[in-house]
Amino acid sequence: MSAATRPVIRIENLVKRFGGFTALNGVSLDVYPGEVHALLGDNGAGKSTLIKTLAGVFPPTEGTISVDEKAVNFRSPRDASDAGIGTVYQDLALNGLASVTRNFFMGRELFVGPPIFGLMRMAEMDRITREEMLKLGIDISDPSQAVGTMSGGQRQTLAIARAIHFGAKVLILDEPTSALGQKQQMEVLKTIKRVRDLGHIAIILITHNEVHAELIADRFTFLSLGEVIGAGTNADLDSADMRRLMAGGAELAHLSEELATTS
Ligand SMILES: Nc1ncnc2c1ncn2[C@@H]1O[C@H](COP(=O)(O)OP(=O)(O)O)[C@@H](O)[C@H]1O
Ligand SMILES: [Mg+2]
């Protein structure tokens, strides 16, 4: 557990409605530097809505988001990223045909002279890419190789290393292990652990896999139907608590669906 006592992100009583539908109904949580905060819940719990609100995609209907104890009002994803909130979505936004380095710098290339001449500082960009990946435990000996040749785990690491290099102090990972096989999942968990051990980055890990969360998270928030049904630190919750909260959330979602169809 990190020694940080001030949250980098504080979410208070967040409400998000889509028309008459309430996707988030008064959600509060704190995120600390050097910690992994797992956001858990069944399909439809509101996990994606919560992180999209945090990432500036949706404005909140009610409630407050603070970054470094200052209330913020993101009008776009750009605002959130300027405030140091980096989101790695499931599709990773990588171009499989382009090189590792080109993907790393995508749109933020380093040029020799004015960018309109298009002459890039390739050697320097290759070096930075390799170094940033190495910090997360992946040695890309040839950063000019196409991203398409990398494993799923390495691609996740590339997207994460890129977000950190370009200023993310809060890293939001949306289901980073869900599309991967067992071995690749472990690689991604190791990468997340390395980011955590850097000490200054806060990680929000969205998952519906409570085993993965239990392996690497310091703090947990369980969502169901847009509400927090349980929260705590690693010390507060044991495996049985986590299974119970996950099962409780799934059951609630199921019952509510049944109610809706029989009305
Ligand atoms: N843009 C939207 N418009 C209307 N309803 C939405 C929208 N986005 C999400 N929802 C609804 O909000 C609820 C929570 O969805 P979501 O945040 O995607 O859950 P999760 O990521 O936990 O599976 C779902 O019932 C979903 O249908
Ligand atoms: Mg989702």
Concise summary:
The protein is α/β, with parallel strands linked by helices and 263 residues long. The chain is built from eight helices and ten strands.
Structural features:
24% strand, four-stranded antiparallel sheet, binds adenosine-5'-diphosphate, alpha/beta, 263 residues, binds magnesium ion, globular, six-stranded mixed sheet, Rossmann fold
Describe the structure.
The protein has 263 residues and is an alpha/beta fold. The chain has a domain of 178 residues: P-loop containing nucleotide triphosphate hydrolases (Rossmann fold, 3-Layer(aba) Sandwich). It is built from eight helices and ten strands. The strands form two sheets. A six-stranded mixed beta sheet has the order 6-7-8-3-9-10, with helices on both faces. Helix 4 packs across helix 5. It is globular, with a radius of gyration of 19 Å. The mean pLDDT is 92. It binds adenosine-5'-diphosphate (ADP) and magnesium ion (MG). Magnesium ion binds next to helix 1.
